[in-house]
Structures
1.
Amino acid sequence: MSKKSLLIVTMLMTMGATGRLWAQSQALTMSLEQLFQTADLHNTSIKSFDAAIREAEAGIKAAKAERLPDVDASVAFSYLGGGCIMDRDFSNGVGVHIPHYGNNFALTASMPIYAGGAITSGINLSRLAADMAKANASDNQQRVRMMLAGYYLQLHNLKNQEQVFAENIALTETLIGHTQKRQSEGVVLKNDLTRYELQLEQLKLGRTQVQNQAKVINHQLITALGMAEDVTILTTDAFELSTESAESREDYWQLVATDNSPALRRAELGVKISEEKVRMEKSARRPTVALVAEEHLDGPITIEIPNLNKNMNYFFVGVGVKYRFGSLYKNKHKINKARLGTETARQQQQMAVEGVENAVQSAYTNLQTAHAELETSRKSVELASQNYEVISNRYQNGLALVTDMVDAANQRLDAQLRLVSSRINVLYNYYNLKFITGTL
């Protein structure tokens, strides 16, 4: 081999090795908890709700700022025209000299002492809005985690199904080898070999379909995680359920939901917000009291005749009281509307309690059903495997047809796939129960 050819081969081998390493570096083995942590940092939906929380917390500071004094300053420069004095019947007018250049400066300050509870209600509403933003963020986080759990469990299910297909493909290829040998000996017909070859192609097609479906789910998963498109998520087998939590009674989960459900938290906050709005509307019927202070520097002094071309400086401090009598007949409708809103919020809270209770009961029942299905699937695999062994022995001794072998293999394959799905179904229903109770 020439030096040039050797160099080309070496470069190709190096590129191939580098490509394999690069491809392997894109495959990430992650647990479900690691997926949740990654989503908390990078998921677009979660980040948007975090921004809403910061916005609501800024609203609390803005509401508290209403307790601070207001300070205003104004300055003006003007040109004053000539004056004229005349009788009341507008006769005998006499011109009066007025200094032409005027100036006005005012500095005013006021600090609320009592606003009828409006400021306090505004602060409370801002705090409740921040709590509502946090409850919405928690609910959204639970939904994102449930979505990720669904994708992750589907990937794990597909991985296990691929293993089942791989095992059956290997077994079928072995049987094809035995059948070819027996055909050469004249023991079996070509038709028997064709049936096995047809079964092998169906198994390969099933494996390809599973692999392609896994690619689709993986893309949806990495998109939700905000990861690069060339990343492949590999699942782990760490799905050990806590016996205590998985087998707890329904009343345990009902109590967990009462303490942690975001839906119940939002309904409770809705009632508090409505009650605070009633207090806000009532505050408009109360007087407002404020400390006031003003500083003025005006010139010229035109209230004297003759005018004084001088500046006049004065200030005052005091207490101002304001009462809007119109609120006595205007705000009663607003107060009534706010009270009706509170009653509506209480009804919605009761509906939320009933809805969560029913959802927990349904999810708990589905979990128990999934456990029963899992036990049935395990028994089915056991029976299908025993049947396959019996048929296989009979076929080897010439006591069964190849169609019997194919049927037995298909029955065992179906039982194995159902078992894989049943295991994932138990996990899915368990995580769904945690999602409904707000503890995922």
2.
Amino acid sequence: MTETTQLIDLLNKKVKLVAMIAPSFPVVYKYPQIITRLKKLGFAYVVEVSAGAKKTNEQVLNLLQNNPKFRFITSPCPSFVRMIRTKYPNLLNFLALSADSPMAATAKLVREKYPDYRPVFIGPCIAKKLESSEDHPELNILVLTYKEIAEVFKNFNIDPNMPAENDKFDLENSDTRIYPMDGGLTLTSGVNRILKDEEFRIVSGWKNVEEALIEFQSNPKIRFMDVLFCEGGCVNGPGIVSTLSIVDRKKKIIDYFNGKTSY
């Protein structure tokens, strides 16, 4: 059974569900209309994964501040983490695995606030399915891409042009809404203000990752690497269907971050 059919089955059975939508959603969906559509679909609550990203930032900052001599590689990307495990096991000790990804952090928030509800992550990343099933099975997160949730909307005849109601996220955090762009973690956490320019690196795109890892190993001055596996960040994830350029996708994220919404 695919994740799409699993969700359709859960919705038909009226199972208690919370939608956790990734911060890249403005590339694909309008706000606040997406909340209206998800609640019409049958989700009891809709939360912004940016809320979990705030927790991720707090954990990363604690690592940096409590370990002033240590060096860290951070990434919410399961593909990158698996690349380190298989190809660069010598760098495993540098991975900040004690800091939750925004998805995992949000799921924990959901469990605290809505203990009887199952979290459903909706985002641009196929590899998040592996993170859910292999890294955090205890959180019981069902993961769908934007492509897959579009199939669910279609199955239940949820009108893509339906008028938005006065909906708001049940959990949100506006400070971390640029997280899906390369450097999002560094900028929203303030790491760039704590460390000198030569002490951190922002990397996106799988073609650039290996070069950055080589530099990290050869340059001990680099204390912090912020890595996203897709070029430009999660705005360019494989679960997104969009004809927009990376620049235009980032503009949608920045507009939403700045409070510009589209009904």
3.
Amino acid sequence: MQTETIVNLFIPFTVMMIMFAMGLTLRIRDFTLMMRAPKAVLVGCMSQLILLPTLGFIFAYWLAATPEQAIGLVLVASCPGGPSSNLMTKLAGGDVALSVSLTAISGVVTMLSIPLISALSTHTFAAHLPGLSMPILETALRLLLMMGLPLLLGMRLLNARAKLASRLEPIMVRMSTSLMVILIIGAVVKSRHELAQYGWARLCRLCSLI
């Protein structure tokens, strides 16, 4: 099996494992209690959808060595918090329901905002490059299958078999954490040459600004 095929299978599997583990800790009332204090949701959404892309443009302008790097930096800053942020919230003892809600809301909004930000960043940093496009319907269905369905299955198991879910939850969290660590290490190893090259280019860019 080719490396690209393994990666394309491993990443969705890891995301689904994380979301299922999060579902084992959540009940419907967790979301209803959270909505009684919408300030946290508003602050979280504004930070992810407005503040981070703005910071992405600022850092891209000052630090990126090439137009491609600038556009990439803006797009990374514009991406919403995903399942990994939910897992980190769980491990840190935070509000998992709030984290999952922010992931869901920002995931829906960014299906529209990322193409717009992509076009704006391309026009800003590389007007000669073609704009990027994203299949909105396909992306929405993929998010539903990889994130929404496993989350609902975990919540359903917690509601139907609470004792089983409580025994399974720490095992799933450990497995999800291990898979995420493997995924990060694999990505760094695979892109080590590009990362080293970009690090050197960014250092030169910083030195030129001093």
4.
Amino acid sequence: MKKIILSFFVTLFLCGFALAQPAKSDEKAEAIINKAVQKLGGEKYLQVKSQVGSGNFSIYREGQSQITQTFLDIIVFPDKERTEFKTGGTRNIQTNVGETGWLADTGAKVIKQQDKDQIAGFKRGIRTSLDNLLRGGWRKEATLSFVGRREASLGKRNNVVRLTYADGFAVEFEFSDEGLPMKSVYKRTNSEGAELKEEDRYAQYVETQGIFAPFIVDHFQNGAQTSRINYLKIEYNKAISDSIFNKPSDAKELKKDLKF
């Protein structure tokens, strides 16, 4: 009887210990992302706290660029971002801090809170970002696994890893044999209940301050290109005031452009 009782408590202890441990990552997948980190700048890449990027943002329809705007994107990792799109003298601003966010249209002089779908989109963007993967922001929320090798182009294959979050959401990242991130792929359901395949493709890597980053990010939805981000400049670890993320009480406060 004592052996049975002892066996029961040992089993109970081991089960409890197993439940308390975070899910282990696939060693091969870890090796792939570690190689990518080194390719993008190693410790310099890992120590990035803020990023300021600017360039052109284009909307695509039927394979053709339709509208191009300039943009300024300011990020304080892990979850503060302010993006401004400018056409002529009018700016559209999207700002997020964690679970909150606001939007502004300087032409219409309108400032409003983001709705739950817009905030959910921002949070999804963090989950699917390269920086979140490579800097380990997912480690308390998801598991990492090696998927295999996937055809990339004639005679070439990419290594594929997958992040799977506790709620079932998953995103896959593809890397070249040299370690460069090539694309990310995930599925989501839109407001009409239709499933969409979203894909970001990374190109034109440029070194800035010892850090490599893709200066072109093409976005595809169900296989058709919908947008292109073309960075012209990226700066890292600039001092960013928290005040730029605060929602203004009046549109007049947004009259002046931010200077970076």
